């Protein structure tokens, strides 16, 4: 069992990673380096502002997190946005939070699409998205997309926002009391080297007969939490001996901590099984929940199955048939909207305690 990456392999990995961000200028459709000003970016929302950092080449978005206050930093999309194959940038927030990147299509007729990521507190990280990472926003105040798919030629605006302000508006559900944490007050999000590129991303790492679903081989986490968890990307060594999401939290009686990942891509219609590896510090009872799209938008129907990973960091391989998930009706993978993992240990009579789980090798399988 390999516990440490050899120095030569580590150096090679670093060189390859660096090369991934060194593209020819011909690939760049749009670049904002913020070396002199904030470019075309402006703030929207009550009390929000943008400025250029005095000690670095960074755009600084300042905003307030409070009930019923919504804000973001936005820019017009470049004229050649239809050629977009990747969007990448460096980002740092002053608190741990879920962030969203928004693509807004021309109205009327167009919709709003977003991709989510987790931003650890005071940590610079590279984030890179492809068109397949974006899914339609179907909230009550979102415009309805006439054709239901992202049309890059119709995108007119790009935005960045803190998802905490939207999670805080979720109505309380006594039947599913998820912990939602709003870090109220003034906050900042800093952005460097924002680029839109026409060159495609490297092919995703997926198992044979598998579909990409959170393989955790990116430079950032594409899972989020509504509160109560500390999320980190753990490249190893770790119990899974693979890139993993490490989630640390304290179990709370009567409340649930929730991990959430949005599901995108029409290819999910081919999915038959959900597989992943998990390890836990302590014995836990977890619920795996699949949500489907709801016609007209809003929260869709959920389908669930429990799993019981052992403690002591023992690797537990999960292989679940989508047809075995229980809910109102039958789960349709073509309408798969999100994947959630919830700790139910305290609800089942276990004593609340601090715990860490590692999740990796997540994939949807065709067979």
CATH architecture of the largest domain: Sandwich
SSE sequence, one letter per element? HEEEEEEEEEEEHEEEEEEEEEEEEE
| Percentage of residues in DSSP E strands | 35-45%
N-to-C CA distance: 29 Å
CATH class of the largest domain: Mainly Beta
Low-confidence stretches: 1-24
The value of Rg in angstroms is 20 Å
Q: On the 0-100 scale, what is the average pLDDT?
A: 88
Give the class from helix and strand content and strand pairing: mainly beta
Residues in helices, as a percent range: under 10%
Domain count: the total is: 2
Tally of separate helices:
2
Number of strands: 24
> What is the H level of CATH, i.e. the homologous superfamily of the largest domain?
Galactose-binding lectin
The gross shape turns out to be globular
Let me know the largest β-sheet: 6 strands, antiparallel
For this structure, the CATH topology of the largest domain is: Jelly Rolls
